[in-house]
Amino acid sequence: MNSVTSTPPKRRVLFLCTGNSCRSQMAEAIVNARLGDTWAADSAGTRPAGYIHPLALRALEEIGIHHSGRSKSTEEFRAAPFNLVITVCDAAAEDCPLWLGQGRRRHLGFPDPAKVTGTEAEVMVAFRAVRDDMLSQILPLLKTTIEV
Hey, which residues are catalytic here? Predict the structure, then answer.
């Protein structure tokens, strides 16, 4: 007798930010790279910038994550079924006080590394800090979120 093992469907998470060029993109890439067996992540912005910040991509590459996403609008995902919607910046929390699509909402604020001024090396420190904070906050949250 053959037994068929059924893999549970991946849970879906949407990361929201204003421009969808830094923080939400990094969160999407981190989750898809580190928890892709159980979670499928997307990201979007309330006012998409139309590009992904090159230092966000560099910060991800430093930890072995290659991300080839694109800046997307929240409107693309309004009808999509998400288990969880996480805003990652204060501006998105203010611009999107009510997520009209499916999914429980949560806010995890991270400072905007693109607003840091200084040399490229100094700005890169900010991108790394946000990336590392996301690794230490988002991954444990999703790992312990059994049913949403």
Answer: 17, 89, 96
